[in-house]
Amino acid sequence: MWGIIATWRMAAEGVGKAADILKNGGDAGDAIETAVREVEDFPYYKSVGYGGLPNEEMEVELDAAYMDGDTLDIGAVAAIRDFANPVSIARRLSKEKVNNLLVGEGAEKFAHKEGFERKNMLTDRAKIHYRNRVKELTAQEIKPYSGHDTVGMVCLDTKGKMTTATSTSGLFMKKKGRVGDSPIAGSGFYVDSKIGGASATGLGEDVMKGCVSYEIVRLMRDGLHPQEACEKAVAMFDQELKERRGQAGDMSLIAMNNKGEWGVATNIEGFSFAVATENQEPIVYLTRHVDGKCVHEPASQEWLDDYMRTRMAPLEEK
Ligand code: SD4
User: Fold this and answer.
1) Mean pLDDT (the chain, rounded)
2) How far apart are CA 192 and CA 171, in angstroms?
3) Pairing mode of beta strands 3-7, 271-277
4) Model confidence at 144, in pLDDT bands (50, 70, 90)?
């Protein structure tokens, strides 16, 4: 069995490429890196890689991680600027014995020495978004928009190896140096080939309070199906945050176990994700809440077309 699952519609093309690698007996590390790079390289996705939205100071600072579920190796970068593919730097770091999570300038130095491609990640389109947002913010009370599209994936190859990876520009208008859950093991991602893996998208500050990815893997270890594990972890933690803090940030989690079974849970409306397995051609699903449960339905062609149209629509300076 092989499989891959990923947050958001934007991962669909990458999931398709990963599926081709996996069905030919390829490695879960290569497949997931290829899939995430596809998202990082696409300039119209404004929350991952090239074209990602900048921080308060109009700099694109990126977070990414990679984990190998056989060895439990972890590599991650946070607040890194000007490199094309943070996920590949994270994967490279996962092979080091120490210094596995590097931030800012240290991460950039490492990437430079290792020969990774430098690239100015701030696109003209992202600059327009930034300037428009600054105008809106000066017109209103400051409430940074919580850009909400981190790519997080879990992958299983035919040898039973599992991997997980994330990549994000974090929150639009974040403070310089702000790091979310995506490069933090247990919060934004976790995988163990003996069990399965999980990955998160949402408000990092809240996802980190519950180490939600690890919690899902733990529940799968106790025998829960990935769908039950995701629903239980998200519902319980959402409730916990509401009780203690009056509100819970957005939280959407994807998971797959080492049999290729998968699950998704979210506390928002309109969450989309992409999945492919040996038994399932690459497909995009949308999640709805029905009687307190998460129900996944294939996205219609109309929805898919509209998604691309809005992402690529001309952007006007306000
Ligand atoms: C973060 N979790 O930096 C990321 C943002 C995100 O979808 O997922 N957006 O907090």
Assistant:
1) 94
2) 28
3) antiparallel
4) very low
Sheet strands side by side (includes 280-290)? 101-103, 74-80, 62-68, 162-168, 151-156, 3-7, 271-277, 280-290, 293-298
Phi-psi region of 295 (alpha: psi -120 to 50; beta: other; left: phi over 0): beta
**293 CB neighbour count, 10 Å cutoff:** 11
Instruction: List the single range of 13-22, 90-99, 120-129, 185-194 with lowest mean pLDDT.
Output: 120-129
CA–chain centroid gap for 191, Å, is 14
What is the pLDDT, as a whole number, of residue 50?
85
Identify residue 226 by its one-letter amino acid code: P
Q: Is 163 an active-site residue?
A: no
Q: The domain 3-312: what is its CATH number?
A: 3.60.20.30
Q: Quote the DSSP letter at residue 53.
A: P
Measured in angstroms, how far is the CA atom of residue 158 from the centroid of ligand 1?
30
For the chain, the C-alpha Rg in angstroms (whole number) is: 18
What pLDDT does residue 145 have? 46
Distance from Cα 66 to the centre of ligand 1, integer Å: 16
As to burial, measured by CB atoms within 10 angstroms (0-12 exposed, 13-18 middle, 19+ buried), residue 34 is middle
- Which one of 7, 123, 150, 163 is the catalytic residue? 150
- Which protein residue's CA is at the shortest distance from atom 5 of ligand 1? 170
- CB within 6 Å of ligand 1 — which residues? 47, 147-150, 168, 170-171, 180-182, 201-204
CA distance 168 to 39: 10
Backbone phi and psi for residue 302, each to the nearest 5 degrees, phi listed first: -60, -45
